[in-house]
Design a protein that fits this description.
The chain has 5 helices and 8 strands; from the N terminus they run βαβαβαβαβββαβ. The protein is of the alpha/beta class and 183 residues long. The chain has a 5-stranded parallel β-sheet with strand order 3-2-4-5-6, with helices on both faces.
Length: 183
């Protein structure tokens, strides 16, 4: 029986179509696809950037630089979200003069993206930085908007959005979950 508190926003097929559309949009905006670098924001943004890099490689015929940037030590809201174990920042090459696409699964308040931008400063100065988010759920606290967005899903603060990927979860799609009320 399906979980009544979990609603499918994007099916596996729809997620695949959305990834293809996002990859095409990224290529349309890139001056040179060989200068692109995808940097995933932990945790799901890292896996999403890997999937996106594969799609971009399929479209361009060449590998796309892909890595991860951990914003943990640059966050201004750790007391609210709780302490997390930092992830490893992995850069395939220097970000100097690269067109960097920050990749996140869900954009919410904008604070994670702000912290990722700050973390990136210690690694160099990219030519351009753009933001790709699979889902924009609203509730922004900072004036940060994605350049590329898979789906806008207005939510309540009591709801969560979860990106599921086959490589990690054994299933694929985007789901909205409602926090169950305690009796």
């Amino acid at each position: 029986m399906a979980d009544p508190e979990r609603i499918e926003i994007l099916s596996e097929r729809e997620l695949g179509l959305t990834l293809s559309r996002l990859a095409s949009q990224v290529l349309e905006s890139a001056e040179d696809s060989r200068r692109l670098m995808l940097l995933g924001i932990p945790t799901r943004g890292v896996q999403l950037s890997r999937v996106l890099a594969r799609e971009l490689e399929r479209l361009t015929g060449h590998a796309i630089s892909q890595g991860a940037i951990d914003p943990t030590f640059h966050r201004d809201d750790l007391e609210r979200i709780g302490t997390r174990l930092p992830q490893l920042t992995t850069l395939p090459t220097s970000i100097e003069d690269r067109q960097v696409i920050l990749v996140d699964d869900v954009i919410f308040t904008g604070r994670t993206v702000r912290a990722a931008l700050e973390a990136m400063q210690s690694w160099g100065r990219p030519q351009r930085v753009m933001l790709l988010a699979m889902v924009d759920r609203g509730h922004r606290e900072l004036p940060i908007q994605p350049d590329f967005c898979g789906r806008v899903v207005p939510t309540r603060r009591s709801e969560t959005i979860e990106l599921r990927l086959k490589d990690v979860d054994g299933e694929e799609g985007v789901f909205l979950s409602r926090l169950s009320r305690q009796a």
